[in-house]
Amino acid sequence: MSKPGLNTLKKGTQYPARDLDSFVSTTEAVVLSTNDNDLFTDPDRHYVVTHEFNGFFEHSADNGEKYYREKKAYVVEKA
What we know:
With 79 residues, this protein is mainly beta. The chain has one domain (14-78). Helices cover 13% and strands 39% of the residues. It is built from 1 helix and 6 strands, in the order E-H-E-E-E-E-E. It has one helix at 17-26; strands at residues 14-16, 29-33, 46-53, 56-59, 66-69, 72-78.
């Protein structure tokens, strides 16, 4: 299932952690894991994309405002 140059993730699809690592390194996107900080500890562990968003709200520590960021965001969980 490994694909070099992965530029998008699909909801419901499983990916090995090594592919997610490459994706995060080369794509302007956010990946949120339900596996705490263990996402990249085992490159062969598979994760399934459970949610996909076109953007999200982010709080600015500088001025206290909330801003909508148009940036792909994905939620993954251990398969």
